[in-house]
Design a protein that fits this description.
35% helix
Length: 590
């Protein structure tokens, strides 16, 4: 019997067979010309007529793109998800979204994170979907997908693409991002040749997958697992490991069950889940970008999370993952040493173990009995890589009234308390030009300040906060200086770098008022960042300040972004996207 010939009562009975009516039946179970249109056009894809008889319809959101090399393998991974969905009795429909690859997108992939989230949100709400599997990986695709899906609140399961295999160069492991900065700085210092740089370039990204350092991609993959949104033990599996394909198949099976259980992100992404994410990030030596992404996600689901939480929640959490850029090893070593499961068991009660996850079980149940096989990579709590309180610190003072962040685990201990002369640049190109000038008036004790690289000022808040040191400083053998900006930095970066200064300079924050020659004092233990200029003088300077012009911001997405983006302490979401849209079925189309 053809689905379109079933009577209304028969279709509703089939839809209710597994519990509450499926959302997709508002399309495929509809009467008259509306149902005819929905069903007949999908029949062109070769689907049997019983496809539409009350089976859960599962979307597979895919951030695959040949312009996003980190996610290039997700097209193949989607096929494994589909197998699992069919096997469990569901109907899979794969669809694309906007994708943003960190290595290529200018001025920054962060400019597109909210666009991807909006794209996903609108696609989920507009289509006959009962649940969704999210295929993501590169830095901004993962948080964007979580944000968009959380706002709709259909049953959702995230599957990240996994890290690349370790880079191999002349008998040593090299890591994406982290080794880029080291090789290029060494070349600028004259300690290695252009031929060596070219050789390393061909040795680093030697498989599919995202950065294999504990950069933003690996951070968000692991953190989202500990927040309950990924299957346990999957975040660190290398992209080319066959077990990732197996996990994708199991994800396809599980999402069908999640629809039957009506297990939605709103039940998983609780305050306790976010606390797990914040604390896991600290123990991993994870990316400062997690701060911005988790703040944005929390505002989508109505969880109270503040910038200060990223400091206060982690003061009793040591860094126990010895991973670049804060340590020595890479994600392949992490997985073989015990992976996310062994790491979670090591943390023990530092995580809330009773939080719900996509498995339907608790975090503690997911990892019970997991073992660690390499205690050099995943350290015990009594022998950490860095002691408790070495995570992200939130700094405040007259230079950052609403806060700034520093990644302590990647900074130089000798510079954590520092006072020096500010050298100030109004733009990144001006700094890069001057940094190579051998006659630049700079000393190792100076503090480098670059502004107008925040959300509105660049726009998009690029990963440029880890400024390359001036050539003359590198040639003298110095490897670190204090750097301050309203930008972000890659999670693969290292150094004594103060980031996310709020409010940003382009929004009139105090960073806009600093001048070369001012004295800046940094005191990380005291959580202080201040410019030693009295309030009256700062107010006088404010009267002379004019908002910088941003070329290309008069139209399209960039204009919308600049008019509505929030500041770093609020997650850089668009103000009208905070909160949820829900999954209510829209009025019929025909």
């Amino acid at each position: 019997m053809s689905a379109r010939n079933l009577g209304k009562e028969e279709r509703e009975a089939e839809a209710r067979a597994g519990g509450a009516p499926l959302r997709s039946q508002a399309w495929f179970g509809a009467e008259g010309k509306t149902g005819f249109m929905h069903r007949s056009w999908m029949r062109s894809e070769g689907l049997p007529d019983d496809t539409f008889r009350g089976r859960p319809v599962i979307g597979i959101a895919n951030s695959w793109s040949e312009l996003t090399s980190c996610n290039i393998h997700l097209r193949a991974l989607a096929d494994h998800v589909k197998r699992g969905i069919w096997q469990a009795g569901g109907v899979p429909f794969e669809f694309p979204t906007t994708s943003a690859g960190e290595p290529l997108v200018r001025p920054t992939a962060m400019l597109l994170r909210n666009l991807i989230a909006m794209d996903l949100e609108e696609t989920l709400r507009a289509n006959p979907l009962d649940g969704v599997v999210l295929l993501a990986g590169c830095d901004k695709t993962t948080p964007a997908y979580l944000m968009g899906a959380a706002s709709v609140d259909l049953p959702t399961l995230l599957m990240t693409g996994g890290p690349m295999l370790n880079g191999k160069y002349r008998g040593q492991d090299i890591g994406s991002g982290t080794s880029v900065w080291r090789f290029t700085e060494a070349y600028r210092a004259g300690t290695i040749s252009a031929e060596e740089v070219a050789e390393a370039e061909g040795c680093m990204a030697r498989s599919q997958g995202h950065c294999m350092t504990m950069g933003t991609a690996s951070t968000l993959a692991c953190v989202s697992e500990y927040m309950g949104m990924q299957l346990p033990g999957t975040a660190a599996l290398p992209a080319n490991d066959s077990r990732r394909a197996t996990a994708a198949h199991l994800a396809g099976r599980r999402i069908v069950e999640m629809v039957e259980e009506d297990l939605r992100p709103s039940r998983i992404l609780t305050r306790e889940a976010f606390e797990n994410g914040v604390r896991a990030n600290a123990a991993l030596g994870g990316s400062t970008n997690a701060v911005i992404h988790l703040l944005a996600l929390a505002r989508r689901v109505g969880v109270e999370l503040t910038l200060d939480d990223f400091d206060t929640l982690v003061r009793d959490v040591p860094v126990i993952a010895d991973l670049m850029p804060s340590g020595r090893f890479l994600m392949e070593d992490f997985e073989y040493g015990g992976g996310t499961a062994g790491f979670a068991e090591t943390l023990g009660d530092l995580l809330h173990r009773d939080t719900l996850t996509v498995t339907g079980a608790t975090l503690g149940e997911n990892y019970a009995g997991a073992q660690v096989y390499d205690r050099e990579v995943i350290r015990p709590l009594d022998n950490p890589v860095k002691p408790a309180g070495s995570g992200i610190a939130v700094l405040k003072g007259n230079l950052a009234p609403r806060g700034a962040v520093i990644k302590q685990s990647a900074a130089s201990p000798s510079l954590m308390v520092h006072r020096g002369r500010a050298l100030v640049w109004d733009s990144l190109p001006e700094y890069l030009r001057d940094a190579d000038d051998p006659d630049l008036d700079v000393t190792p004790d100076d503090i480098l300040v670059v502004r107008n690289v925040g959300p509105k000022g660049y726009p998009g808040m690029p990963e440029v906060g880890n400024l390359p040191l001036p050539r003359s400083i590198l040639e003298s053998g110095v490897e670190d200086m204090v750097r301050i900006s309203d930008a972000r930095m890659s999670g693969t970066s290292y150094g004594t770098v103060v980031l996310h200064v709020v409010p940003e300079a382009a929004a009139g924050g105090p960073l806009a008022l600093v001048r070369t020659g001012d004295i800046i004092s940094l005191d990380v233990p005291a959580r202080s960042l201040a410019v030693e200029v009295d309030d009256a003088e700062l107010e006088r300077r404010r009267g002379e300040w004019t908002e910088p012009q941003v070329p290309g911001s008069d139209r399209g997405w960039v204009r919308l972004y600049r008019e509505h983006v929030t500041q770093a302490d609020e997650g850089l979401d668009l103000d009208f996207l905070q909160g949820a849209s829900g999954a209510a079925v829209a009025p019929q189309a025909f």
